[in-house]
């Protein structure tokens, strides 16, 4: 395992670095302060292959939210067009943008997260860049408290947008040339076009 970010990840280019990023490490984020030992479990994306999942430092900000909070996270990559760079990043000047819904704002504001650092040598890169998997139990090396996710975004130079619905943004993102990561979108508010 090297200290840099792997260039061979298959599904997407890594996100750009953020302010105060720190060295490469693997993390598991939870609102539970009492974890420490992680057993492989089936997931939606790998129901027949129990795994322990981790995210690397570069992509950790996509988990600075309550677990069930729907969010869309985007960043430009080498194939992002100038028009899309201006469209998605031009107003605020950040090179990473996260969008949540207003209905989740109080929960995000009040959230206290625990980042468990996991042993990197136990993991292999997943085909989706930024994610890592292990097929055997692992024990955390360290636990770091993550308070005030809103302030964490500001300090990292990541633009956090609060919208009534994530869907109009997400529809445009998935038809664009930016790279993206969406989480817990099944918990998002009704799509505005399906309302009324």
Question: What share of the residues does DSSP label as strand, in percent?
Answer: 25-35%
Q: What percent of residues adopt helix (DSSP H or I)?
A: 10-25%
Number of domains: 1
Give average pLDDT, whole number.
90
- Which structural class do the helices and strands define? alpha+beta
Count of DSSP-assigned helices? 4
Which ranges are low-confidence, i.e. pLDDT below 50, for 5 or more consecutive residues? 1-10
- Reading the helices and strands in chain order gives EEEEHEHEEEEEHEHE
Q: Reading side by side through the largest sheet, how are the strands ordered?
A: 7-8-3-1-6-10
Distance between termini? 53 Å
| Annotation, overall tally of beta strands | 12
Question: Tell me, what's the shape?
Answer: globular
Largest β-sheet summary: 6 strands, antiparallel
Q: How many whole angstroms does the radius of gyration measure?
A: 17 Å
Write structural notes for this entry.
This protein is an alpha+beta fold. The chain has one domain (26-181). The chain is built from four helices and twelve strands, in the order ββββαβαβββββαβαβ. The chain has helices at 82-89, 105-110, 149-156, 167-174; strands at residues 26-30, 37-38, 52-56, 71-75, 97-101, 112-118, 124-125, 131-134, 138-139, 142-147, 159-163, 179-183. The strands form three sheets. It has a six-stranded antiparallel sheet with strand order 7-8-3-1-6-10, with helices on one face. It has a four-stranded mixed sheet with strand order 11-5-4-12, with helices on both faces. A two-stranded antiparallel sheet has the order 2-9. The termini are far apart. Residues 1-10 have low confidence and may be disordered.
